[in-house]
Predict the 3D structure of the following.
Amino acid sequence: MTVNLPLPLLQARGVAVRKGGRDILQAIDFAISPGEIVTIVGPNGSGKTTFLRALIGALKPSSGRVIRRPKLRIGYMPQRLAIDRNMPLTVDRFLSLGDAKGATSRQQALETAGIPQLAGNQMTGLSGGELQRALLARAILREPDLLVLDEPTQGLDQPGEAAFYRLIADLREQTGMAVLMVSHDLHVVMSASDRVICLNGHICCEGAPTQVSAAPEYRALFGHGTDGALALYRHEHDHSHDECGHDHAHPHHHDTGATP
């Protein structure tokens, strides 16, 4: 029996980015399907933000190409936003910039993001968590097919992170949109992702996260940052992983004792 799989929302084929004589990304092949949650992990300077910017069209690849589904709607939440503290800008005005959505849609986006009471507040007066939710409200205002998040919980405490990721999971369930995010939060890699990609200038490993939340291996790995995240899913290739923080003694097919 033939199974017709949905066409990817977005694909990268052989994408490379070179800046200032240095290769930031090399030979990236990637695709994301409707409704999928994909998390990107990797060390600082590994090209994660550059990768996202190339995918959404904010940065032109030096070689290769990005193919987006016709009429694909993308909502993008940047890692940070610089706002002139001397410029008056309410949350509602921020949402209206460059978008034709009306006041009702803007208020609905704020309600979905969990900050309906902040429409009239100044952007510069928001707390870290409130600012992240305002950025999320703007990203979802276009009712995206694909939500792209660049380290969305940076600067939040653990309860704030947990609440934010629950919201993202709920949004996926309610709307069916796909989610692509960069995160250093191991909880996300373990519980909220359908697929994990390790990026270090190239895709050095990818796969489905294993279900080991109750296993001793999980507790041993937790807190080791990216190195811990990398051992939580299966590797399907056979070259050295030194760039990902692996030891040569580790087998290439990691088995944590749980079913992938």
Q: What stands out?
A: The first helix runs from residue 48 to 56. The chain has eight helices and nine strands. Helices lie at 48-56, 91-96, 103-113, 128-140, 158-175, 186-192, 216-221, 225-230.
